[in-house]
Design goal:
Helix content is 26%, strand content 27%. The protein has eight helices and 18 strands. β16 and β17 form a beta hairpin. α3 packs antiparallel against α6. It is globular, with a radius of gyration of 19 Å.
């Protein structure tokens, strides 16, 4: 792998070396990508994966809404899908076809305009469709598993992979699909309904989120998964961590399962806070909180 940087595949998109990744994440922290690749389109992505030596690590980054990029940066290639080629949304009969870089909320809005119910919950998820596929994103009682029909992408060799929803092996915030697939597009099933009724439900979700979550802070969404039969925010709150500073990080006073960067946090502050809370909750209750936020890269 010693010479891979000197023999990067030819692409039509952008290849950026030592590119800071913090600006691409909601927390606004973290180090640089050894190489950041912004593909021009799906063919550009497939060709790059095919020609990149197989021992070079590849990491996918969406809008960075539930990611901590560690301070030491990310080795190998970080691929970020963005722009019209990966964020398109189409409506065909009762189906919504969305690119993996499409914002979840944009998909919800497109479904609402088309009079299709079932995807309103995406209005409450601050991420992209690619991330939703990977983690079975959901909120307020509905998950990606409930509306997904199929999706396709490219594996690490550049080969196209098509999966039906049953192939994902979805469980709570987890997919059993091959981890090396970089999703390009997904198809969702909606139910015909009055557009005004769909929009009203979306408005309710949006209002609820705005009043209960610190969405205007430098945050990353839910920090921990909910343990079976319990709420992570209650466990964090009862352990005394709501609003308690840890370096430049703390759990929000508004919602104690949301970490925030108060302005000076490092990635180490944020991850350290999460681990301190996990240890404290485990010691006090025996519950082992599991991260929902992804931590990527070198410390």
């Amino acid at each position: 792998m010693s010479n891979w940087l000197d023999t990067l595949p030819k692409v039509r998109g952008k290849l950026l070396r030592d590119e800071p990744l913090g600006p691409f994440t909601w927390f606004r922290v973290g180090g640089a990508a050894e190489v950041l690749f912004l593909p021009a389109d799906a063919d550009d992505l497939a060709g790059f994966l095919r020609d990149l030596p197989q021992d070079v690590p590849v990491t996918v980054l969406g809008v960075g809404s539930n990611v901590i990029i560690r301070d030491g940066g990310v080795a190998g290639v970080v691929i970020r899908l963005a722009g019209r080629a990966f964020a398109g949304i189409q409506v065909e009969a009762n189906h919504i076809i969305a690119g993996s870089a499409a914002l979840d909320a944009a998909v919800a809005r497109a479904a609402s305009r088309a009079g299709l119910a079932g995807l309103e919950f995406y209005a409450g998820i601050p991420g992209t469709i690619g991330g939703a596929l990977t983690m079975n994103a959901g909120c307020y009682g509905t998950e990606t598993n409930d509306v997904l029909v199929s999706a396709w992408g490219y594996d690490r060799t550049g080969a196209r992979r098509d999966l039906a929803v049953a192939d994902f092996g979805y469980t709570y915030r987890h997919s059993a699909a091959p981890a090396d697939i970089i999703w390009v597009e997904a198809t969702f099933q909606g139910r015909p309904d009055d557009p005004a009724a769909v929009q009203a439900r979306m408005d309710e979700i949006t209002a609820r989120r705005e009043t209960t979550q610190p969405i205007r802070e430098k945050t990353g969404g839910s920090t921990f998964k909910n343990p079976p039969g319990q709420s992570s925010w209650k466990l964090v709150d009862e352990a005394g961590w709501r609003g308690k500073p840890h370096g430049g990080a703390m759990f929000s006073a508004l919602h104690s399962n949301f970490m925030i960067n108060t302005g000076t946090a490092t990635a180490a502050d944020l991850e350290g806070l999460g681990e301190a809370v996990r240890a404290d909750v485990r010691a006090k209750t025996g519950v082992d909180l599991q991260w929902e936020i992804k931590r990527i890269g070198r410390s």
